[in-house]
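>> received
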Amino acid sequence: MKNTVYVLGNPLVKTDRKAFDLLPLLSQKFSAFKFEFYDPTEDIDLKDKSDLIMLDTGINLKKTALFRDLKYFELSPRNSVHDYDLPLQLGLMKKLGKFKKLYIIAVPARGKTSKILQEVKAILAAI
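>> returned
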């Protein structure tokens, strides 16, 4: 069974769409993985408690980076239920034992697509 890589991003915001833009290329080049667009307002159904692999755009990154822990992310202020964000959701999922390991691959918002694809390939090979 293929590991799923959940791809995040907002296609309407230029600084947040790089991972989303890579989705068709990733699907073509990396057949060992299943790439799926993920809307963070929806729940991820991890039936087998597998590893959770996500791909997102990282603002101000110079090269692709791999994060294995939520401690590297800031939670947004939570004044109402509308402030529920991805790090909070992932933290809850972790506490509930919904996944074994977390991998967040962050790609730079700007840069050569071919270079970014090579960096993603190297990270996926190491997972």
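>> The chain has a mean pLDDT of 85.
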